[in-house]
Amino acid sequence: MELQSYLKENWIKQQNTELNELEINDPLYQAEEELAESPAFFFDQDKFAARVKKVKEYLGENIPLTFSIKANPFLLNCLPETIAHVEVCSPGELTICQKMAIAPEKIIYSGVMKERTDIRRAILYGVGILTAESLLHVKMENDIAEGMGRQKVILRLTSGNQFGMSEEDIEYIISHQDRFPNLEFYGIHYYSGTQKKKVKQIEKDMFHLTDFLSSLEEKYGYDPKLVEYGPGLATEYFKAPYDQTEYALLGEVSEILKGFAESFPLGIEMGRFLAAPCGTYVTQVKDLKYSNETNYVICDGGIHHLKYYGQTMAMQVPPIWVLPGIGERDGSVRGMRRAAYVDNSRENDKKQSGAVAKERLTGSQEATEEQVLSVMEAVVDENDYCICGSLCTVADILVREAHLPALHVGDYLGFGRCGAYSVTEGSALFLSRKMPRIYLFSQKDGAKLMRDFVATDKLNMADPLKACLSGVSLWN
């Protein structure tokens, strides 16, 4: 069972779904070692493989698929064979590929800023394709490739921002290929933005590329061997049904792409669309408080780990699950929760529900403690919560208002569809809090630790030895 399906069926609640009871014998439910310390990301490799397979089914066998690893480099650990290329956009990402023994011929080495050392290293490693985003890139790549065989290069066409080159610059390069004898201008690279929800946006890109490529053929006889295109299809984060919405868009777009591929050698590049659905971020409830008519949840994670594109100041609600604290997993969720509340007489529950409970006692002004508790058991079954992180800033709000089962300190919250960018985009060094654990999850192997917690305090202070050698005292 894939991680997202497991969570949906076996954790207490997903937004916009019915409340389910836990099955105590399920593997993640019993994974005390993995959940004993949080926060952590779980990346479902089965889900990732299924996503890639689905996209390939829509595109067909004749359109190669590239995975942009900046979306989630940890997924290189489970890269499906059907991925033709991986896009690498920095020297650090190239290092990751080298350490992961990714075949160099599968790599498209991209990036808006390339230095000579970066280009030399990429060529020496044997990357299959380099991109060029400026005339300077082309000149450097040609100079460095001398004596190492002709290097395949795709020229990036700008979409109106700092990335890529103008049509005029590309035309100059194509019309003066004799000046760059060490390069094979293998094709064109084009990407015009992310989270596209309208088919017309893709059609516009295809018309633009068709006109430009036709012009290059007419003027210079240029026949590209690859047109690498990033469609930037929208990932649905906040409104179910998630997959159905995305695949409906993909279905319409794929017909346009296959039509284009009949005239030009199209390759499709994706990052977010492939990776987003496979990620879940788990954080533990550490404190609960009620003030100004708001139920605040304080978690051990925060916005330094978790980010959703377009969440609009935490107003949008992603899929959320709740898992009881490990020590409380001994019965049905509803039964356990009511017993825990009554037995412990939790102050937050009383504040949240006491007034409502009395109102429900058929107008009675005086009620016994037993009567109030009886009604409050039902009232506190669910509540609205403002979910906050561990950072000392008012900006650290994961969700401004989420309707969830009654929470208690020690419970775990799972945030879904965060498999793309979130793990690397967060402000991880802020306040010197630890970076989360990373797990790969599969039905076959369960949860496998890929990276342990990383302390960040040492990154936010001077190196004692270097400071000492520089004559600086860190202890006054």
UniProtKB/TrEMBL annotation:
Pfam family, one: Orn_Arg_deC_N
MF terms in GO: diaminopimelate decarboxylase activity
Location of the Orn/DAP/Arg decarboxylase 2 N-terminal domain: 47-276
Keyword Glycoprotein: no
Biological process terms in GO annotation: lysine biosynthetic process via diaminopimelate
InterPro entries, per the entry: Ala_racemase/Decarboxylase_C, De-COase2_N, PLP-binding_barrel
Keyword Cell division annotated: no
Cofactors, names only: pyridoxal 5'-phosphate
Keywords on record: Pyridoxal phosphate
Origin: domain of life: Bacteria
Protein name, as recorded: Diaminopimelate decarboxylase
Species whose genome carries this gene: Roseburia porci
